[in-house]
Amino acid sequence: MRGLGDPESGLSYPELLRRGDDAAANALRGLLGAVTCVLLYTVLVPLVSFGLSAVGWLASGAPGEFAAYYAAGRAMEFPWGMVSAHLGLATLIVVGLGCVVADNHLRPRWLCSVQPGFRWRYA
Predict the structure, then answer these.
(1) 5 φ, ψ to 5°?
(2) What's the pLDDT tens digit per position in 41-73?
(3) Residue 89's CB: how many other CB atoms inside 10 A?
(4) Beta-carbon neighbour count of residue 100 at 10 Å?
(5) Whether 76 contacts 82, CB under 8 Å
(6) From CA 80, how far away is CA 86, in angstroms rounded?
(7) Are 112 and 120 in contact (CB under 8 A)?
(8) Cross-strand pairs, 5
(9) Rounded distance, CA 116 to CA 113, Å?
(10) Which letter does DSSP use for residue 115 in this model?
(11) pTM for the full model?
(12) Phi and psi of 105, rounded to 5°?
């Protein structure tokens, strides 16, 4: 197993995140990765969004009942609801980067582009 670093040279971009030539092991890792990502999506995103909504509720002086505040936030009736929803979804970026590090033993910069790192010029 190689350490955290760059992939071997001479690989095309679709081959960067594969480890070895064992197709069955790569398929199993891909399936387990997909299941893990779906579980993290269904658990982590609502948890972060709920927590940020609670912080917003407390920061605004706890107006009314939290359940009504949270429901209004999920309906995007005020800016803090949109912020908490988007930051909840942004946690998936961290999950993706963590998966590249944990499973593929590559630096996270290889997840962004065919060249290492984020290409700001195209953003």
Answers:
(1) -175, -150
(2) 889 888 988 999 999 899 888 888 999 988 988
(3) 13
(4) 20
(5) yes
(6) 10
(7) no
(8) 106
(9) 6
(10) S
(11) 0.68
(12) 55, 40
